[in-house]
Design brief:
Layout (H helix, E strand, L loop, with lengths): L2 H33 L8 H29 L1 H20 L5 H33 L5 H29 L3 H4 L1 H15 L14 H20 L14 H21 L15 H17 L2 H16 L7 H8 L1 H21 L2 H18 L8 H28 L6 H46 L5 H4 L4 H9 L4 H7 L3 H5 L3 H7 L4 H33 L7 H5 L7
Helix pairs in contact: 1-4, 1-5, 1-7, 2-3, 2-4, 2-8, 2-16, 3-4, 3-7, 4-16, 5-12, 5-13, 5-15, 8-9, 10-15, 10-16, 10-22, 11-12, 11-18, 11-22, 13-15, 14-15, 14-22, 16-22
Amino acid sequence: MQYKWIALSNTTIGVLMASINGSITIISLPAIFRGINVNPFDSFQFLLWILMGYNVVTATFLVSFGKLSDIYGRVRLYNLGFLIFTVGSILLSITPNQGSLGALELIIFRVIQGVGGAFLFSNSAAIITDAFPYNERGKALGINQIAFLGGSLIGLILGGILSVINWRLVFLVSVPVGILGTIWSYTKLKEISKPSRNESIDWVGNLTLAVGLISILVAVTYGLLPYGSSQLGWGNPYVIAGLVVGFALIGAFIYVERKVQYPMFRLELFKIRMFAAGNFASLLRSIAYGGLTIMLVIFLQGIWLPIHGYSYEETPFWAGIYMIPLMVGFVSMGPISGWLSDRYGAKLLATLGMVIVGVGFLMLTTLPYNFSYPEFAAIIFFMGLGNGMFASPNTASIMNSVPPKYRGAASGMRATIQNIGQTASITIFFTIVIIALSSSLPSALANAVSQAGAPQLSGYVQNIPVTGALFSAFLGYDPVKTILSSLPAQIYSSIPPQAMAIMEQHTWFPTAIAPSFLLSLREAFYISAILCFLAAIASALRGKTTIAEIERDGGRVDK
């Protein structure tokens, strides 16, 4: 077998494993949190950290690990990533405790996984770029992108199946793949590019970037938690301090990188038009698109599926099934767009892809909360096609534009920008939804309980945290049972039986919150549509395709 196919198959296994683990966790959180006995109404912070902690870690270390791979070898650090990721999966599957301590252990073990994932993600694109000639990279990176989205699809289905059996299997399933990939990577992958051993490590740059990003990402995470009488924590002094310190350190990092002899973050790469435009388009696309899946899953689980007769316990699995068209659209377009970009360049494909995703967001705003599923499926399939049309051509364009000796750093920079955008997207989506719901949900619930025949509950339901209601719906809990079980005994006993019967119907709670939730989602979708169109403009400004190796050797390829 030619080495290029060995490199592609191994990096594809790594991406597949990492993406399965990401989506399998999202869809399996209900079983995981029931397994560790966590209360949904006071544990929103655990949800955020299990969802976002992995991204925080990978976003923090991707650039550092990318630069280190240029110095010590991309394959060597990629192999180490496989090993660390597998160890993290084993630890997650044997989490010993329950309650808050068990949730904290899950977060720590996910962080370990995140370190392994950072090694994998920062080097996979560089290893593929090293192994394939320039006129085959789009196709190879397209196949790699298919594995990423295919893994997301497999994770959604596999998570729904395994979580019913035992939540620990959700993490254990990654272990055999990790062991196989680790052995294969250590025995078959080889260094093609010569490591730059003469370069020293930029310790000051590493420290300022890591601490700065961690400060910002931790601050925005806690900005989503209630603070005082507010539904959000943006007024929390610690959140404000974290943002100020984080952005100050990022400013210091940029200054340091302009002064040190061997910078970790190659700012001069942004002088390359294709590199700068491709990364800026990727950032805008990630901010627009990164939180879409989580928001749609919450909407399906908390509103649409219960209205259509599904029990709260089974909604997580069916939400994953109903999201399949989004993944299928990406998987069907990824290799085609990669092959086309090898022949005709990335600009037209990537630009058109972002326009399609932007139109898809606008189409989502037209749906009622009790929508027709075929219409919904067609829209998200359409958006998946657009995303697949953008992803592999844009990645190939970025990686083709940089000199071979900087591919590790460039791959880490590309992945860092993408991960920061995805984390910011989740934060923005949650912030918009929580702000919108905090102004309309309390009165909607108060009116709903009064109309059901239990006006004495009005004051109580108006004080329910919006984050708790979102968390409850996302984890597949029956929100009404959760609310009623926490009532004081004298209030609970005063509820008339006919009112209790109305509120315990599957359609009551979803119908009560649906108008407010859908209004907030529409606001987020409008913002995402604007960002997608801006990403299309950035993509169109990338100019003609240039291949760094050919330019170095005195030739040039324009497309």
